Amino acid sequence: MTTTTEIAEFVIETEFDDLSGETVDELKKRVLDSIGIAVGAMGEDPVEAVRATVEEMNGEGCTLWGGGAASPPDATMLNTAYVRYLDYMDSFLAPGETPHPSDNIAAIIAAGEYEDSSGKDLLTAIGIAYEVQAELAWNAPVRDRGWDHVTHTVISATAGAAKLLGLGSEEIRSAIGIAGTAHNALRVTRTGGISEWKGIASANAARNGVYSAMLAKSGVEGPTNLFEGQKGWKQIVSGDFEVDFSPGERVHDVMTKKYVAETYAQSAVEGIIELAEGEDIDPEDVDSIHLDTFAGAKLIIGGGEGSRYEVETKAQADHSLPYMLAAALIDREMTNAQYDPERIQRDDVQELLRTVDVAEDDELTDRFETGEMPAIIEITMADGTTHRVEKDDFEGHPNNSMSWEQIETKFERMTEARYDHSRRERIVDTILQLENHDAADLVALLD
């Protein structure tokens, strides 16, 4: 039976030398990808509202990416919101849950800056957080029980922060107990009419994780039997489960997003762009679009948790398969530009999205659960001609993972409007050699 003590022991025992060279390389990719996405989100209204709230607290101790200072929890709140808001972050593909382990990175960098941690310490803590989040998602999914996946994030962020804050075993158990008792999130965030909180919820979870760890460090006692205790997490939130921790190896099962779109849309978006370009499809001649997909995609972005045809905001658009497929077919790309309010409201995409039919296919669900991300798209033209494409996965899926060079290209694209070439080059080089730097070297480049 998995216990709170087991997680505490994993946090304490895992060191940088336990991470394989391949794992260290993948963790560095996660850091570069996340920082690039965060920079690309700067200036967006919802995250700037978070900044205004954080700045009102007048805290200090950690760097706010984009300039300013705040306490470790508040810096975590804003910086994680930057990483998460665009829906361009990474994802761990478990059969019953799809969390975003990059939600932990800003929390760990904040804790590391506060504690003057080394780059090796940062990478170790990130590896721990990725492992905890992935193992919980794989073995203790909570989506079907009505909980949001950031319920896992608050525990993984606590574990990573606890490592850098130097907590002992009992303190870690208390920190995890505080986090997992007080901060379980409801799935309503991602059902029905979706609000902007969808893109901010994980920042709140990460912030609470750092705060829980800091409380425990200061001597606040929490329930030390969170998982196994009477009326504890297993009884109320997840059901019984077992985990099998390795030193950060789960990072190899994490995907990188090629498109600014919800995780489960990646293969379908890639497929429809390939069809549009390869067949030179005129959107005005399209009669209908049909997508066969797996159960999770149908549930989350295909209409299983509320209509995905009423699309007025970015938060609704990036969780609507009909919108994403229509926009991708018309524009032959899926970037931030496709979520501009004027683009969302335009008649061409609003009319085309209503021709999109999304169907769940049991065989595709089986394929998803054995490691693919399948999608079958058929576009029927006004003259009856049908164009079809079938995808097993996409560029960025663990079966077709991105190289460092590809992630660096994504980073360049997301940051070139804010940072000059010299600054971008220094950020890339610092992350590439992070084991030879410390947290302060990295955050000094993110103003």
Automatic annotation (TrEMBL):
Where does the source fall among the domains of life? Archaea
A GO term for molecular function: lyase activity
Residue span, MmgE/PrpD C-terminal domain: 259-432
> Could you say which protein family the record assigns here?
Belongs to the PrpD family.
Q: Which InterPro entries match?
A: MmgE/PrpD_sf, MmgE/PrpD_sf_1, MmgE/PrpD_sf_2, MmgE_PrpD, MmgE_PrpD_C, MmgE_PrpD_N
PANTHER family (alphabetical) = 2-METHYLCITRATE DEHYDRATASE, 2-METHYLCITRATE DEHYDRATASE-RELATED
User: Which source organism?
Assistant: Haladaptatus litoreus
Domain MmgE/PrpD N-terminal as annotated: residue spans: 6-245
* Name of the molecule in the record: 2-methylcitrate dehydratase
